Recover the amino acids of this structure.
């Protein structure tokens, strides 16, 4: 069996275990025995149960990006549309594994913004995606560069992702329709804030008046 297949087998077995028992296995030894593999073999793929959870979260991101890149129309989207497409696609992928996602998320130490734990690799991957998106937004002028604040845009998008995740986990609406609305409103609001606004126009005008004032 190839390593990727074995990794998938371990991850699948772990998800089934925690969903059936409501708690992680008591030890790697017991879990490996359940999988009928030596404990040393388990460590060839994962060094802890948290590593399995980290792998699952990064897989959700990887599947999302693969799906987006497979869509020929995606490259033609505006930056705002690309972020919307990301969230909609990501949530669709999470739906397929909802029971485990809810379990894993609720097990995280709160607030998640201060402690990401097994979300760390996923966070790093999202930051890379969001940073590239913001660079593209600056080139297309959908995102305005502002002193100090611009450097925190990516942090704001991470907070937005956590908000959407938390909203979806708790969403009781049919077909998670409320989550779709939350995504649309939060993304539109963020781009309204990152894009050129009335405040920018006022500041530009004030700057012009100041530079052209008569002595």
């Amino acid at each position: 069996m190839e390593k990727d297949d074995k990794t998938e087998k371990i991850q699948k077995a772990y998800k089934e275990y925690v969903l059936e028992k409501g708690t992680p296995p008591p030890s790697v030894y017991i879990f490996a025995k359940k999988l009928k593999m030596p404990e040393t073999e388990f460590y060839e793929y994962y060094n802890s149960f948290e590593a399995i959870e980290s792998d699952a979260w990064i897989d959700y991101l990887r599947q999302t990006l693969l799906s987006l890149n497979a869509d020929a129309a995606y490259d033609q989207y505006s930056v705002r549309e690309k972020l919307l497409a990301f969230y909609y696609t990501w949530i669709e992928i999470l739906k397929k594994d909802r029971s485990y996602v809810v379990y894993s998320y609720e097990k995280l130490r709160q607030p998640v913004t201060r402690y990401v734990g097994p979300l760390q690799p996923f966070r790093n991957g999202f930051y890379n995606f969001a940073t590239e998106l913001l660079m593209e937004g600056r080139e297309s002028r959908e995102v305005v560069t502002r002193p100090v604040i611009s450097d925190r845009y990516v942090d704001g998008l991470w907070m937005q992702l956590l908000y959407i995740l938390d909203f979806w986990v708790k969403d009781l609406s049919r077909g998670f329709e409320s989550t779709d609305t939350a995504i649309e409103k939060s993304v539109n609001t963020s781009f309204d804030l990152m894009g050129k606004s009335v405040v920018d126009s006022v500041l530009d005008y004030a700057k012009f008046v100041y530079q052209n004032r008569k002595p």
Observations:
- The mean pLDDT is 90.
